[in-house]
């Protein structure tokens, strides 16, 4: 990987560099990416992946993949599988085995027992409502729980009974004994274990008590020898608690937590909970719907790993929240595909052209470049015949000078082929044009007409007798509102009703039918498209529009 995603500068790279220079790292740099397997990864996670795996790569360290699986009720194996696939597709590989926070449940249980033994944890019977009352507010200290002073022996016995399944869910919790008057509410005797009588995707029915995220994360970092535990800003207030556990438990290492700002993108929601709602309410067709800002969705839409890494690199890493313009993401993919996607032709709204002076059974295989300035992308062969399709909007019976396409009595060039002159139209009884009869100038393949009058326009086309039929799906932004879920907006109200338009019976040049799923193309004059990962086949080709050729949001297309 040669892009900047693993080499540019940001404040976390500076911290790592300084730690290395000052000899604060006894061994290698170790980071981790810790997704909770409760949904598919989205563009925000891509940023975290590029950051964590990128740092490890840059400093010859390691990055672990650790599923942060402390909430079994919302987690699923399908998510675990999808997350691994997405990370690898983005171009990263974790060090060592796949890790799970649940791998440490035994140790975490021992740590909890240790805390009780030190007089630093107690079993509390307050209900959730009572606990809220006792917790106090940002401006008022909390009150001690009436169970705070239980003896070590009583706590040990109660905790063992909790583990044994003797109590109902919600009837008891284990809390760290820190300080109910702490200004930071996270330190007001936080819950560290809950009773949850649910089966876990990794540990099955071994446990009926589960540690909280706060009691799990830092200790897992320590157990894995993570040196830099990088998370998003909402965990900044949890850092004192992270440090308290590390200081008060017999952990084997002293990891440190660093925070950076989440990636927010306008016209987009990046919250697994909300993305799950879009899936559950069938607003979209699954987590990998090409309109979803999930990695799987963007992949199916035709984004490339390099474009996403480049985008993550461009947005940088900051300490304060901001909102990135989705146009930047669109630019990243447009730029990549412009340079790398082979060209091809597809007619979406076909109008038949009959070339009256072209022999009925003649076929010529014309060569066209794979890409205008990439010789390495080779050439393609385009069959040319008496009947071809062009876009209906590329023909007019009459037009002013601004219309540089085919007009009755005028000429146009067919891309990589001949110059045509439109001579007459055939209409049905309703007056719709069903055919345009043209003549072609046989001397104009790769040459100007002899009369020196060059046609002003070049249009795309497909041979009617060789083209294949395809389904084309035109995708657009999923939301019409710039901030669909901010400022009290109900994001489901802002779904773009025109985010998907399916066009059946498009005509593609024949070689496109053989495109491998996930192969990207520029369809000349119409946009960048990808052969659908799931549904495209040689017999029923399906192409998804990744992005239009130009940004048409906010300004009219000039085509
Ligand atoms: P969500 O709010 O979408 O459910 P999450 O933070 O709960 O996201 P996790 O699976 O816990 O999702 O996240 C795994 C890692 O990815 C965490 O380190 C988290 O901080 C990071 N991450 C999640 N969302 C973003 C984002 N928008 N920008 C940058 N990093 C993110
Ligand atoms: Mg989370």
Would you write up a description of this structure?
By secondary structure, the protein is an alpha/beta fold. The chain has helices spanning about 10-20, 45-60, 75-90, 105-115, 130-135, 150-165, 215-225, 240-250, 270-280, 295-300, 305-315, 325-340, and strands at about 30-35, 60-65, 100, 120-125, 175, 190-195, 210, 230, 255-260, 345, 345, 350-355, 365-370, 380-385, 385-390, 395, 405, 410-415, 420-425, 435-440, 460, 460-465, 470-475, 500-510, 520-525, 525-530, 540-545. The strands form seven sheets. The chain has a seven-stranded mixed sheet with strand order 10-25-26-27-23-24-11. Helix 2 (about 45-60) packs across helix 11, helix 7 packs across helix 8 and helix 11 packs across helix 12. It is elongated, with a radius of gyration of 31 Å. The structure holds adenosine-5'-triphosphate and magnesium ion. Adenosine-5'-triphosphate (ATP) binds next to helix 2, strand 8 and helix 9.
Structural class: alpha/beta
Radius of gyration: 31 Å
**Largest sheet at a glance?**
7 strands, mixed
How confident overall, as mean pLDDT? 95
Shape field: elongated
Approximately how much beta-strand content do the residues carry? 15-25%
> In terms of per-residue confidence, which ranges show pLDDT below 50 for 5 or more consecutive residues?
none
Bound molecules: adenosine-5'-triphosphate, magnesium ion
Report the total helices: 12
Task: Work out the helicity level.
Answer: 10-25%
């Amino acid at each position: 990987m040669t892009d900047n995603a693993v080499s540019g500068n940001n404040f976390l790279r500076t911290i790592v560099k300084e730690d290395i220079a000052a000899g604060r790292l006894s061994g290698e740099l170790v980071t981790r990416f810790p997704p909770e397997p409760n949904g598919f990864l989205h563009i925000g996670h891509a940023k975290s992946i590029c950051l964590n795996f990128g740092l490890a790569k840059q400093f010859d360290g390691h990055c672990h993949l650790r599923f942060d699986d402390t909430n079994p009720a919302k987690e699923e194996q399908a998510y675990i599988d999808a997350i691994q696939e997405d990370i690898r597709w983005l171009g990263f590989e974790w060090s060592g085995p796949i890790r799970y926070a649940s791998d440490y449940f035994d140790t975490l249980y021992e740590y909890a027992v240790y805390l009780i033994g030190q007089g630093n944890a107690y079993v509390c019977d307050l209900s959730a409502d009572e606990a809220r009352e006792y917790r106090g507010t940002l401006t008022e200290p909390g009150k001690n729980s009436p169970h705070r002073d239980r003896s070590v022996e009583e706590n040990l016995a109660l905790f063992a009974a909790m583990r044994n399944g003797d109590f109902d869910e919600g009837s008891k919790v284990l809390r760290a004994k820190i300080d109910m008057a702490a200004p930071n509410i996270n330190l007001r005797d936080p819950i560290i274990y809950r009773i949850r009588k649910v089966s876990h995707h990794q540990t099955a029915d071994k446990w009926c008590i589960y540690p909280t995220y706060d009691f799990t994360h830092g200790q897992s970092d320590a157990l894995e020898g993570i040196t830099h535990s990088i998370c998003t800003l909402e965990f900044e207030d949890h850092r004192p608690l992270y440090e308290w556990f590390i200081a008060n438990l017999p952990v084997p290492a002293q990891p440190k937590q660093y925070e950076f700002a989440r990636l927010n993108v306008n016209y987009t929601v990046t919250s697994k909970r909300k993305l799950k709602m879009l899936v559950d309410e069938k607003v979209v067709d699954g987590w990998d719907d090409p309109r979803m800002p999930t990695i799987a969705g963007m992949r199916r839409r035709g984004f490339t790993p390099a474009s996403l890494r480049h985008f993550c690199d461009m947005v940088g890493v900051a300490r304060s929240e901001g909102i990135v313009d989705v146009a930047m993401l669109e630019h990243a993919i447009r730029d990549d595909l412009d340079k790398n996607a082979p060209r091809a032709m597809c007619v979406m709204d076909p109008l038949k052209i009959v070339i009256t002076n072209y022999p009925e059974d003649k076929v010529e295989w014309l060569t066209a470049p794979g890409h205008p300035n990439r010789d390495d992308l080779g050439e393609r062969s385009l069959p040319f015949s008496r009947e071809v399709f062009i876009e209906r909007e590329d023909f007019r019976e009459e037009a002013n000078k601004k219309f540089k396409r085919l007009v009755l009595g005028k000429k146009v060039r067919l891309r990589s082929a001949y110059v045509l002159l439109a001579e007459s139209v055939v209409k049905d009884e309703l007056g719709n044009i069903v055919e345009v009869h043209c003549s072609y100038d046989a001397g104009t393949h790769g040459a100007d007409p002899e009369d020196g009058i060059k046609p002003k326009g070049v249009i795309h086309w497909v041979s009617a007798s060789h083209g294949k039929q395809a389904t084309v799906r035109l995708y657009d932004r999923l939301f019409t509102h710039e901030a669909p879920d901010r400022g009290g907006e109900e994001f489901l109200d802002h779904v773009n009703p025109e985010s998907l338009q399916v066009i059946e019976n498009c005509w593609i040049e024949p070689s496109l039918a053989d495109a491998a799923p996930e192969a990207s193309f520029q369809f000349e004059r119409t946009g960048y498209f990808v052969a659908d990962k799931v549904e495209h086949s040689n017999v029923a080709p399906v192409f998804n529009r990744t992005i239009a050729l130009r940004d048409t949001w906010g300004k009219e297309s000039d085509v």
